[in-house]
Amino acid sequence: MIIVKPAQSKHQHDITRLHAISWQSVYTGLLDEKYLSEDVFQERGAIWEQRFSQPSENQRIYVALENENLLGFICIYLDQDSEQGTLIENLHVDKDTKGKGVGKALLQHATRIIQTEASHSGAYLEVLSQNISAQHFYDYMGGKPIISQQWQAPEGSFVDELVYGWTSTAVILER
């Protein structure tokens, strides 16, 4: 049974690991090979160290667990943008559990938090243009591509991405 709950510092290492492995899998061929093979764990580790040690007031991190094993995580920033609403900064699911409802459970949990804690009902996220499977998931969850832009990756490369948005996150709970 999948349980979604607030992340604790004890989850930091597993979140970092899953984030880095996810990037290695999805971003191969898009980001610098040396970065993905050597630097991504340290760089993502620094991000998560900061998020856990000095969280911003609007930051929320949730984990999906089964028997205390991390299946996925989501990190959101409530009311990050006055027009778009809450930023879904990260949503990653272990590749062995994709297609089993973990991403949906995390996104729906975050939606309930947005509806109770945010003043804006919308949400948005950024997804690489080449990450077609993630786009299909966001389409299914009622998201719409609203902006095409470039993202400067931590190692300096520029990659095409889409901004997906929900004018109201209520549609996410209907899926």
UniProtKB/TrEMBL annotation:
The question of whether Oxidoreductase is a record keyword is answered with no
InterPro entries for the chain: Acyl_CoA_acyltransferase (IPR016181), GNAT_dom (IPR000182)
Keyword list (alphabetical) reads: Acyltransferase, Transferase
Show the GO MF annotations. acyltransferase activity, transferring groups other than amino-acyl groups
Q: In this protein, which residues make up the domain named N-acetyltransferase? A: 2-175
Superkingdom field: Bacteria
Q: What PANTHER family does the entry give? A: PEPTIDYL-LYSINE N-ACETYLTRANSFERASE YJAB
The protein, known as: N-acetyltransferase
Q: Which organism is it from?
A: Photobacterium lutimaris
